[in-house]
Design goal:
4 copies of one chain form a homotetramer. By secondary structure, chain A is an alpha+beta fold. Chain A is built from 12 helices and 9 strands. The first copy, chain A, has 3 domains: about 120 residues, Butyryl-Coa Dehydrogenase, subunit A, domain 1; about 110 residues, Butyryl-CoA Dehydrogenase, subunit A, domain 2 (Beta Barrel), CATH 2.40.110.10; about 150 residues, Butyryl-CoA Dehydrogenase, subunit A, domain 3, CATH 1.20.140.10.
Chain lengths: ~425, ~425, ~425, ~425
């Protein structure tokens, strides 16, 4: 057990931070102004930034080392602190080709795609030429319970025909979005977890109807957006199916582990920067004759922020380490824990920073309000908090409730949590 | 960075757990019954347990490795998970000679004691022959601000004469308590942090008056107790002074780092066991036609407990690691953080476990109510939460508030927190 | 709608307050010392205080006006602020014959007792000659769900024979406790809510075995205590049954409304006094060069306490008013609300006051720690929070969920809450 | 003391509710679509709705009865439940000419305006012909501390010349906004609370520069908006000054009492409707095989919402009653309490409703996200929470800290709070 970043990671942190300071932070105001004035257009400097990032070797950093030469070779634990730094500017991850949902989609294609699928979609994605979306959530049902999904994927000769109604399809509004990965049911009568399949749908397939961009707290999140999409008799070749019929649930599970590490580290980045903004602000303002930084209530809030951020960071790093060392299945409780902890932690920290800034805090002159909307939305995305608590609670009760107390001292300790025993040490 | 315990630590955990299961848990009910019926008497099996612990090599585990042959050689990080296990039974630490305040007193004597002081007091303490107390808190002032302390230590010829009024002197009621380390002022006119000194006072010195055992929530915590003590013209030889006049504050600071690790890990032990009891209970009871374990609200509480415990554990382990690698000064913010986080976390977790047990939860048939009283008291001991938040808030604002934003990405990350830069890697 | 106490109530408040100041507060320290030194003995001045209270017309104030000449004629709304004042000293209610569980027992006897039952038990209780207990909770089951109760009351000729195991029978340890009202099942096969009956059991009946006094957080709460009691073939005449077989649940429901008003107002009294102690304390202590009262964090805590207390007080008074005007059934949601709100509110406020007092706060030199134990225990007594939230949540969902939104503007407004329509004004 | 609405108020509630159901709720979707597509334009049906409201006698209901024939004659307590109902649709208050900041501005003009000022501005405002704004907050300072205000109002011959920089001037973007009431300093050297004055500035005065509409969480709140405004050598006749030089602070204080009642009741309306939406939703969705309404965690959230809403409602009604009976000064602590309690309560309740709706909750298909932005912003408007807690804490400590404990039983009870004694009953 050791709690310091390795020298290599420290180098990577410095390198990425220098890039952010030189190329990204200085463009923040311009980005805000541009996207507000020009919805659904790509920020003009973006392509240049991507080229710079590639040149600097800061490209596709998220892609797990197991994908050999496609991957720059970072472990989840090594990538995590870099995701934190990217998260400090909400639109920065794309510069490094590290933004959701493309990252998850690329992982899926790298892991489960046929060579044709990889040639057609993975390579352009890895190169940043195109973008993609993931069509999972449905307006009509509680789709975090995958058995509720109503979208149908039906075999018809050499094709599959898809009918369904999706929304909150992040990234689908982007002008470069060319590919959807769609979750639907191939066999609604099958066993609970083998009803679902995933299939590749080119964005320009007939029958795809983008109903509208959705707003989160009034914000459309241009240029990526969150789309409501109707799929009516959308026909694609049978070869577009991923992995096989009935394996959609299995793919979804494998996809979510690292993706949650990324989301959580980005959220930690927003929280960390919010704390820094808060600290700056309270040194600049005076009320009732004293600098805000000297009020004990302000200091308590700062102290709480710091404790909460550091705890969430350690938890997320430990989940990344678990995935690296023991695999996603062994890490499932830890991954649930970070999904429960980090979005709410970020909401709390950001909210305190907003409050200390007064009207400036909710305005678009600072990133705080956007951060809040992002963090609040993540409490719902990829399964709401309640789903994760329900399952983590069940796993935990099952692990301890059946133990002869106190036969086990502390199975929750790093290294051997309940539910993680099925897989031995490597 | 690596989040699994080393094989050696895993062995130690197994060894200590086996001892607890064989020798300690089976005696819990007997201990409760005995101490209630026989206040201020030592639990008869205690001496035998101590001999067994010595024989098993589970003795003085807390003593940092830097004390050479006195120490069994564990780092703070290696000792921490053992303190967690001991914490599961509130009276167990003494079996391993690892209980507060003796541990802190032994550290002080090992670090600052003269050879005479060590011979007279450290050796019998290390051997478990005697016990000791630490007389710091005063009823008349906010003594967590050391400049408020009113106890006087005045030189008079070859002696020091001590006058003061102390309370919450933990352990001073124990029949084997032979030594007090007393904090007082030798020079109230000196600079803020060099007014204080510490001095050794044998318990049987004339002028020592144990006024009464104090109650915390109605419990006297026999046989150690928390004493109110008046010191009236208590005269001890000048050689009893520790380290030198004006160095009391310095000693106090050095004493508190590892001590807080211990307290926090023990609290994590109480929280962990409370969670396990909670999980067991909800599998055994039924209300409104369903097993409690199936209620989503119960599962949420279990999930929250698990998230909170694991985060506090990682934070505390990281603080231990920081002390080991960079020293107490470099770890001061992390040590403040665990002192802020762990007692409140434990109170929350224990409280949820109490609630799930109904009347049984507050009774003395389970350790939960005692746990709560202990955890709640630690929110006040060694400085109330507010003092730590005040200082951590100040340090954090100072570190970030003066930074050109965003010149620093994340100085709070493990490895380089604010306030910890004055000291390089070792 | 009007939010000021009537002149009559203001007079009563002044009268009771004057009594407390003259006769009760001055004895607090003596009471604490006596009960600690003399467990299970009655505080010697108690009988004199009761005589004084009778003479002052401050006797049986709780007894609802509908009991005619037995009652001093106060409505629940008029009695509530007096219960708050009595609650400021935990042992004070008995002085005015207004303490639980005697109050509930007297109400039950007044409402449902036969003239024989009233002569034998109600009159001596109303006169303060004897005390009583209510035997409901059982160690083996979740007895807040009355269908879980296992105690049997079986008819045998002219008698009933009772077998069961009860605990947390408050008041049963008091030397003057002569009567138990026992809840048990006469017909376990009947419909869910008519299985239970209540029966009068004289404390000296053969087969009654007081196993032990229970401790709440280590405190026995002498001289009333909380008893664990075994009932083995306890035989009483059939005439001891209250109201009739199968009506135990009905009696329990009627009993609980006013009783919860009393508990909640007493808790508000403890919270209010805790806030006053907190305000006093922070004006007396200095840390880091400033009076505690000037720290913004302290002021925030004081402000929060005041907001929380006042809200809970208004809610409880509104519940009392609803009972008075529309009956217990119409007030059931409001009564659930105060049971959910007040104990937790009191715990929070008392806890803040403890924290501001440091070690003094948890000690027995102030009433704060006792207050906390009382308030914490009430979160479990008469049904844990969770039971009330479960039912209130169900009622609320049922009321709104089936409404054509927004057909009703605000059915929760005072005057017409959901679930309260079945009963018109009386 | 009496907790039911009077028959007259119940009639008014029914009348207004019927109007909302017939004319307002059916237009909600159309309003959302129109304002998104047509920023800074007035919703076409608005003028017709206003005529209907006038015809229905639902006009200027907020104006306190003391303004004689200008007022429809409702007390604050009578108006409060109507404000709650209007608050259920964020844009509804304007229909009844009851929206901020016009209400506060009209009160100021009615109370302090000269007959010329009333003729020119009050009458058109009361008639709904024009709208107005209140220019108080400044970007450069913590303007909730009025002594920090930097805007200058300088006498120059028969005119005043105004220079300053304001923002968050709600309503100033509205095409019909014709009048600003500007807070600035006439004498920065005067005593703390007589430096400020208020002055009437017609919106078309040269030197007025509307810099931009501000966004709160990305929303511009069209058509009223929140403007950033620069005032450069803005010259108005001396007769535009309100009440007299140095009386700005005094006017501000008088303005804020009823205004806070309105804001808080509207927030309670948003919370109440959020709870109703939540209850509906959980009856319509199923996850893991059960209807959401049957999950105990959902029921707990519903129960908590109901408790929190009802407490906040009673507190706000009691503050309105206090203003009516004893005046604003006597009600100042209660007014601080509702400002502390209600916005946070609303945020909490709305947030729970959002969570239960999943993606729909943050979208613009429901009013929840808008509600949240409104409630969150009110935590900052009219002084952030912290300012109110600071002052309420000080008042409370001062009231209790100096009392001989326990000389006063419960001065916080309705009828006689601390700080409210200086003023007798009226």
């Amino acid at each position: 057990m050791h709690f310091a970043y390795t020298p290599t990671t420290q180098d990577n942190i410095r390198h990425l931070t220098a890039f952010m300071e030189e190329h990204v932070y200085p463009l923040e105001a311009e980005y805000r102004a541009f996207t507000q004035a020009n919805p659904w257009q790509v920020f003009p400097p973006m392509e240049g930034l991507k080229e710079r990032a590639k040149a600097a070797g800061l490209w596709n950093l998220f892609l797990p080392e197991e994908y050999g030469e496609l991957s720059p070779g970072l472990t989840n634990l090594e990538y995590a602190p870099l995701a934190e730094i990217m998260g400090r500017v909400l639109w920065a991850s794309e510069i490094f080709n590290c933004n959701a949902p493309d990252t998850g989609n690329m992982e899926v294609l790298a892991k489960y795609g046929t060579s044709d699928q990889q040639r057609d979609w993975l390579l352009p994605l890895l190169d940043g030429q195109i973008r993609s979306a993931f069509l999972m959530t449905e307006p009509a049902v509680a789709s975090s319970d995958a058995t509720n999904i109503t979208t149908r994927i039906e075999r018809d000769g050499d094709d599959y025909v898809i009918n369904g109604h999706k929304w909150w399809s992040t990234g689908a509004m982007h002008p470069d979005c060319k590919l959807y990965i769609v979750m639907g049911k191939t066999d609604p009568e099958a066993q609970r977890h083998v009803q679902q399949s995933m299939i590749l749908v080119p964005a320009d397939t007939p029958g795809v109807d983008i109903v509208r961009p959705l707003q989160a707290f009034g914000t459309v999140d241009s240029p990526h957006g969150h789309a409501e999409i109707k799929l009516t008799d959308v026909r694609v070749p049978a070869g577009n199916l991923l992995l096989g019929e009935g394996r959609g649930f299995e793919i979804a599970q494998g996809r979510l582990g690292p993706g949650r590490i990324h989301h959580c580290m980005r959220l930690i980045g927003t929280a960390q920067r919010s704390l820094e903004l808060l600290c700056k602000r309270v040194g600049e303002r005076t009320a009732f004759g004293r600098e805000l930084s000297k009020f004990s209530s302000i200091r308590q809030e700062v102290a709480r922020c710091r404790c909460e951020i550091e705890q969430a960071r350690l938890l997320t790093l430990s989940a990344a380490d678990r995935i690296d060392r023991q695999g996603i299945k062994a890490a499932k409780d830890l991954v649930a824990m970070i999904k429960i902890v980090c979005p709410t932690m970020a909401c709390t920290v950001i909210d305190r920073a907003i409050q200390a800034h007064g009207g400036l805090g909710v305005s678009s002159d600072l990133p705080l309000a956007e951060y809040y909307v992002y963090a609040r939305s993540i409490r719902l995305a990829d399964g709401p908090d309640e789903v994760h608590m329900y399952q983590l609670g069940r796993n935990t009760i099952s692990a301890y409730g059946s133990l002869r107390e106190p036969a086990e001292t502390s199975p929750l300790s790093p290294g051997e949590g309940p539910g993680e025993r099925q897989k031995g040490n490597e």
